[in-house]
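ok so I'm stuck.
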Amino acid sequence: MRGLAAFFIAAVAVASAFFYQEGGSKPLLITGEDAGYLPPSACDPCHRAIAESYRRTGMGRSFFRPTPENTTEDYSRNNQYFHPATGQHYTMTQRGGRYYQRRHELDAAGRETNIVENEIRFVLGSGTHARTYLLQTPSGQLAEAPVAWYSENGGFWAMNPGYDRHDHFDFRRKIDRECFFCHNAYPAVETGIPTGARELFLRGAIPEGIDCQRCHGPGRAHVQRASNGAPVADVRAAIVNPARLAPERRLEVCLQCHLESTSRRLPYSLRRYGRAMFSYRAGQPLEDYILHFDHAPGAGQDDKFEISGAAYRLMKSACFLKSDQALTCTTCHDPHVAETGEAATRRYIKVCQGCHAAAHRATENCVSCHMPRRRTDDAVHVVMTDHYIQRRRPDRDLLAPLLETHDDERTRYRGEVVPLYPRRLPAGGEGELYIATAQVVDDANLAAGIPRLRRAIETYHPARAEFYVELAGAYARSGRNEAAIPYYEEALRRDPHDPAARRNYAAALTSLGRLAEAANALEPAEPGDAVTLNALGAAWLNLGRFDRALAVLRRALRNDADLPEIYVNLGTALLRSGDLSAAAGAFQSALRASPASTAAHSNLATIFQKQGDFEQAEYHFKKAIWSDPEHAVPHYNYGRALAEKKMFPQAESELRAALALDPRFAEAAAGLGLVLAQTAQPERAVELYRRAIEIKPGLSAAHFNLGLALLGMGKGLEAKPHFQAVLRSEPGDDSAHLYLGKILLAEGERAAAVTHLEKASKSSNRNVRNAALDALRAAGEKK
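replied:
not stuck anymore, here's the structure
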């Protein structure tokens, strides 16, 4: 019987280790390299009891396809959720054994709009605390659905962590390699993927649940030795048994996923450059694979309690620090057994009494006071045990409701980033390079981090391109694009195939006005890289090459039909090409993908305004402001539209809001001046026109309106240089020729006046043409 089982396992290994995707030619391997992993079922024949027990644990149930047998949520009655921050309605439904999540909004007339429905292909999370739902795109990418299910109080629907905001990702947050790493077994992926790649395209078999090999390492050699009748010692030597590891290595098996110091921008970790995402093996030193970081002590972050930080909190405890590595996660937790309730409590009490026998009565629950349950800061609908073992329970309501806090300029951390694990890195060399990089990756410590990373690069001349990319990005994000360029170029010399570096390099070139160079930098875009193709389309758009922009953007859409930025750029290209109907369709598609797209709302509002539908235009103008209330441009666009409707008080309010948000917004100053001029406030209008010209000397609209206002006040001599300024930038402006001609005529400069008036007399604008002809007749030039 033992021989039959062994033969079965070996057959599984050969069949599953190496295969090809359907309809494709690239081989798929678990983790993208022949690392010796097997399907989880390979462990069952010899370890059936422990495998079945493990599948009932949270790790064993961490990822699965939804079926009636594993579904506890209510998909028929309590299956709707309204999100107040966005006004979006979500409905969770089941049809024919399949599960769906649907979103809709209500338009200006109260009709359902922006309707999207996606099939839920996978569930992430055991349901002990929560479940997140995943869809799968045609390209094989997994994406997160916005609404999750939480187990608290019998179960309810609410937004996923990070989604309770007006500008959330909706159905577009991709599950990348880092997400997958800690929430499931290693997948089968294409060979030849760059080690730094984050995107995950699943075109082969997808595992369900973290499997045995996450803690025991690849199982193929173990299975092959067992099937070949090797001595027991050799069979055991071919697999990792964490119990036989040194305490530090044993702890690191758990730390690979449970040492997150924060889910907010810091960064909490940096995977060593050159290490593939799925390359960590149980028993290896964790620091050879990844380095962990934390906020600086005393920076107000010492009591953060987050959903993926159990080991992080444990390692702050006196019990852990004084145990000399004797206390690890498995001291209390048997990873093969799903212990809950009284059985788990008795186990924990017994562990505590091993060191604290005289501290309490034998039956007293140590955990409830010293490791209390507490609401997590980042997943505010989840309550978990705090693994920071404290002498005294915090004197506050640890279960009180929390509001989700997001990273923004007001809340985000600004300060030093310090090593967490290992606590110290070797001085100099790679240690200094990684610590310096940690300061800038998420902009926590740019002011000190940029010169520190630059010195480290200049001192140690690292071979890896990533260090140069991070320094270039830090310069760009701090507004120093000129300084970023040489570091992007050095990075691309070392790694020409890094698409993110190439896109960021092109963005820096664009910000410097080097538009043709930006397009050239993006031209080597891979045919399937929708993000880079979108950037290339935007580059051609900036150059006014609408034909090339449209062709590239349509290629991008064929690769990723859910990326709203592609639709926005496509709509802009169509709009500038004069195809309003197709442009409107593109912007509406952008809003189906991202209902909070400011650019899509603004452009769609402009199209409706041109088409004479002010009701729909106003709806989208207001939506644009709602989607980005701190952005001045939507207020400006809405203000201009209101001014065209002669709704001057409302227009003045919006244009003042734009200027308050951006005091250097020259167009808003000029627009507000025009509104004031039309409401009989010429002196205040003149002040604003002058302010606009001071900010942006070449703004011809401000010069024209200032000239017109001064002319109306009888100040033709002051008005003259402003009409001349208009004609320097726009030589064909017939109105400027008309007014300048009249001024020159009044000054007695007849020949110059006639030249300008004759140009104005050929205007397609009848009023300008007639006024010019009248002036010429008055000058005796026409009969």
